[in-house]
């Protein structure tokens, strides 16, 4: 298999596995009312399931992933896929809240191992100037896989009980994990053209890397908002807007597929095109998307009737527009020597400050008032994200014009 073929096979294989990752992660949100009814849970308790998942996810990443800067990454990615796929099977024997919580903890550890290493692996297969499009394809799994979680969860959950949809990604995940083992390991840094430095190439220097930290902090606030939207929007439509649960999941899932697919691919393409003119391209696209999402999210929360659906669509579209350029900016902010470690630190940061606590916080506010007021917590996070990303444009690493010509 040629190097080019290996690169594209790796991208397709890892993207497919990422789809299953997000399907498994979002099935819970589609069946939350069913779980709450069976186990008699408050909003705070059901929100804590996602918070516990992300706490374990963000702690596992910096503990396990640094091994990927020293050892073959395909083995570590495959191990993570095996762990989360096998843990998914535990849903069949989950009969109380504590067992469901344990299942989420194990899945979080497995997914952290895969998600933190995959972008670094792909960055060694594709140069900087096409990474917006590469990350666009890889992270297409975020909206589409998430949407499939709502659609599959809503359909199977209402017909066969909430446990059934959790099981659909287990076997495909195990098979794809074997496929990852067959990939050829790329040479670290083989596709990099930017100059190395203390800030970009050492763990100690990472803490002085302003490009990395503004990207990570901006992504953390974005993650806070997306986490709240994904966890609570179907429940919001069901409880506050009185939309039948299955219809709420189908509507939100369908909008997520369309908005997420177009926004993720468009954001990556725009970022790569604009990078030819300015090194701040990725941060600029992301900051604009976050800014435009603010009025759309407010409208989504307060509009009623048919008008609320276009508002939800636009809110998701603007939020997800930054997915590919923000991740491309992230992998470009560090050199290959510490990229996996930097991604692990990023995962810890964005989930610690983002969706590790936003579902629980929104659930807590909902218990004290109502879910509509709880969802308003997203607005402040989005505004802060936009401000940090606009500020971080000044720290974007520069790629020389001749390098742009040779790497396209």
Give a verbal description of the structure.
The protein is an all-alpha fold. The protein is built from 19 helices and no strands. It has helices at residues 3-39, 43-64, 73-88, 97-123, 131-138, 141-160, 170-181, 198-201, 203-206, 210-239, 245-275, 281-302, 308-320, 323-332, 339-353, 358-368, 371-375, 377-392, 401-407. Helix 12 packs antiparallel against helix 14 and helix 12 packs antiparallel against helix 18. The two termini are 22 Å apart. Mean pLDDT is 86; it is low at 401-408.
Tags for this entry?
disordered C terminus; mainly alpha; 19 helices; 408 residues
Helix content: over 70%
Order of helices and strands: HHHHHHHHHHHHHHHHHHH
Helix-strand makeup class? mainly alpha
Query: What's the total helix number?
Result: 19
Low-confidence region ranges: 401-408
What is the oligomeric state here? single chain
Largest sheet: none
Beta percentage is under 5%
Report the C-alpha radius of gyration, rounded.
20 Å
Number of strands: 0
How far is the N terminus from the C terminus?
Answer: 22 Å
Instruction: Categorize the overall geometry.
Output: globular
On the 0 to 100 scale, the average pLDDT is: 86
Quick synopsis:
This protein is mostly helical and 408 residues long.
């Amino acid at each position: 298999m040629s190097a080019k073929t290996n690169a594209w096979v790796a991208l397709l294989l890892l993207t497919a596995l990422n789809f299953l990752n997000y399907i498994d992660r979002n099935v819970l949100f589609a069946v939350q009312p069913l779980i709450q009814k069976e186990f008699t849970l408050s909003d705070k308790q059901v929100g804590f399931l996602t918070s516990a998942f992300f706490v374990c996810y963000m702690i596992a990443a910096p503990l396990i992933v640094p091994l990927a800067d020293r050892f073959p990454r395909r083995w570590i990615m495959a191990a993570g896929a095996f762990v989360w796929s096998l843990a998914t099977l535990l849903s069949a024997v989950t009969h109380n809240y504590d067992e469901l919580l344990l299942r989420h903890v194990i899945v979080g550890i497995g997914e952290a191992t895969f998600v933190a290493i995959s972008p670094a692996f792909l960055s060694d297969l594709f140069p900087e100037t096409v990474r917006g499009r590469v990350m666009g394809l890889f992270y297409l799994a975020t909206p589409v896989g998430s949407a499939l979680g709502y659609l599959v969860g809503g359909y199977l959950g209402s017909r066969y009980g909430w446990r059934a949809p959790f099981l659909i990604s287990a076997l495909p995940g195990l098979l794809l994990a074997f496929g990852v083992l067959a990939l050829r390991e790329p040479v670290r840094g083989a596709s990099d053209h930017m100059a190395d430095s203390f800030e970009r190439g050492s763990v100690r220097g990472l803490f002085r890397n302003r490009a990395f930290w503004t990207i990570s902090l901006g992504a953390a606030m974005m993650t806070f908002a997306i986490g709240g939207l994904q966890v609570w929007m179907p429940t919001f439509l069901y409880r506050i807007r009185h939309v039948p649960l299955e219809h709420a999941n189908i509507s939100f899932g369908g909008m997520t597929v369309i908005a997420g697919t177009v926004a993720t691919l468009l954001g990556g393409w725009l970022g790569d095109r604009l990078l030819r003119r300015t090194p701040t391209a990725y941060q600029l696209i992301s900051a604009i998307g976050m800014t435009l999402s603010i009025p759309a999210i407010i409208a989504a929360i307060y509009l009623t009737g048919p008008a609320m659906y276009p508002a939800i669509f636009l809110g998701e579209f603007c939020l997800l527009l930054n997915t590919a350029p923000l991740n491309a900016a992230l992998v470009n902010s560090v050199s290959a020597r510490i990229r996996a470690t930097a991604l692990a630190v990023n995962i810890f940061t964005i989930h610690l400050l983002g969706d590790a606590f936003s579902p629980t916080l929104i659930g807590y506010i909902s218990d004290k008032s109502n879910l509509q007021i709880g969802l308003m917590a997203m607005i402040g996070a989005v505004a802060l994200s936009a401000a940090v990303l606009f500020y971080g444009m000044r720290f974007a690493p520069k790629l020389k014009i001749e390098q742009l010509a040779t790497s396209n």
